[in-house]
Amino acid sequence: MMNEFLKPYQERAQATLTATLADTGVPQDLQETMHYAVLGGGKRLRATFVYLTCEALKVDLTLADSSAAAVELMHAYSLIHDDLPAMDNDLMRRGQPTVHVKYGEAMAILAGDALQAGAFESIAADELLSSTSRTQLIHALAVASGRKGMVAGQVLDMHHETVKASEQQLIAMHRGKTGALIEFSMISAGIIAQVDDDTRERLRRFGEIIGLAFQVRDDILDEIGDSATLGKQAGADRHRQKSTFVSILGLSSAQSRLEQLTTEAISTIEALGSSAQGLKLLGHYVAGREY
């Protein structure tokens, strides 16, 4: 049932990404690598958050396409670089060889660089949006993906490869590494809809909390899932002795924390009324997904 609910948004995101990456004049090997990284799978959750939030705010989805594409391109770039030997050295992603395994490290780095730039280009080139909205969206994405957001989270992750993290340090790490882009998904819709400050803060807070819930569920799945379903090596975090919510809290307490976070996230958007029902469903899906 949930898969059927998500399908139209996932298909819209996939079509938008395909069109975004269809530019001519790109070297063939770079184009092939980017297509492999972006179009070869993924749940499109970040794009779906953009679309569902825009729907909740009564915004035409054509105004959301560039932000939906941008957040997925930025996410794809982050995965490429995260999988590199200098980072996590992962060999499998979504059931397929990681980008550097298939195309080599140099091409993986360059494809990631191109996708990061393409994320900003997607928004900057969207003439359906006002220049003010485009500027605000580009700034929000830069903050979410950069030195105070996703990159900062990755740096903290590297710091804690050899030093056990506390729960608060783990939360700070994942707010950057995972939560920042989900926050952008929520905030972008608020920017497009030109909502008031209170509503924008509610959206940001929902993204922050549900992003943390996403990571707690990820840690639980790494512990209890199987590689075939996850599309990557199950138990990899435990094997590397990485700090996770499961290693710090234990499996049962991590599950309780997940339920607490989900309830808290849903409560932040109650003020949006019945129009936020889709967002609530997606929040519950994030907390209960199997991969």
Automatic annotation (TrEMBL):
The keyword Transit peptide does not apply. GO terms for biological process: isoprenoid biosynthetic process. InterPro entries: Isoprenoid_synthase_dom_sf, Polyprenyl_synt, Polyprenyl_synt_CS, Prenyl_diphosphate_synthase. SUPFAM superfamilies: Terpenoid synthases. One of its GO terms (molecular function) is metal ion binding. GO terms for cellular component: cytoplasm. This is Geranyltranstransferase. It comes from marine metagenome.
